[in-house]
Amino acid sequence: MTQETQRAIRSVYLVFGACGVVIASLLSRVPQLRDALRLSPKGLGILLLSIAVGALASLPFAGTVVHRIGAANTVRFGAAVASAGLAIGAIGTEVGTAAVAIGLFLLGFGSGQWDVAQNVEGAAVEQRLGRSIMSRFHAAFSLGTVGGALGGAAMNLLDVPPLLHLLGISVLVAIVTWIACRSFLPALDDAHGDTREHGSAFQAWTEPRTLLIGVFVLCMAFAEGTGNDWLGVAAIDGYDASATLGSFAYVLFVTAMTAGRWFGPRYLDRYGRVMVMRCGALIAMVGVLIVVFGPALSTALIGTLLWGIGTALGFPTGMSAAADDPTLAARRVSVVATIGYAAFLAGPAAIGAIGNSTGVLRALTLTAAMLALGAAVAGSTRPLVIAKAATP
Asked: Are 89 and 166 in contact (CB under 8 A)?
């Protein structure tokens, strides 16, 4: 492995981790934001939706931006916009709800650009390295969220106002990402291709393989999102668990996800994407069914482990599959990310709507159905064979 590749790996770890820090730092101060703005639960939910709206507005053309200015500059741009949004949101706690909504929209918008670009760069590093590593970059994001959440908890303990805390994080993240991007791989023009030679920027939306990968990522993201959002509630409502045990179920799920992403690449390299993705989706489906229909909380916790481990590799491997052809990686990753992120927006609402009549625990059966669909379309992640141009 060359020093250039080693530096690129470290820089991609850093930008993924920083992305997790900025999101978790905000979420760790949500109760204080709610109190400062005097919001009802409904009002808070609508306000937080601004992040998802910003991301979904950004993702469809993020690939075009990467094509035009490269992954490094796109990460810098996205991180700068996200950091500015975090800062505006922090200032908004002293100004009013409208300012916070604008800040959160910008945070989501910048994060969308940032996420596509870092996945494109991660795929380029993976291809340079010649072995699977993408899921470890996503594990770095998870560790970043843990760090951001712990930092927020410390700020709460020390009674540091959200304004000072979030302004500090916004400046730190902008500086760190700007410096980290200096070590991205240099041959970005070759890796990202030229839009003039490869048709319309939206051509990837007509490609069956890309759309199927998007469906696969949608299913796995749905399973990830519903686990994050509803496992604690399901344990408390469905098994009469204490609030502490409900939180433990969530921690167990996140830990299993992070471990799966860190140790999973060896199995991808040994057994191939399709087999590992199909088995992962089925393992997660079994885990969900154990959580929903198990006889006791202890078995539900076992199901939670299976759910987390089985889901772990889905999203990052979908990003790798979308980026198999370096010349079209940016636009395809953009399409797959857009489809996948729709699950993070729709998943919590769908479970909540069904849970109103069936209870949250039984509503999670929908997650099992999505994982069955994910297993069925996992073949779309099969590595793409790229024809080599003949040399005269």
From this structure: yes
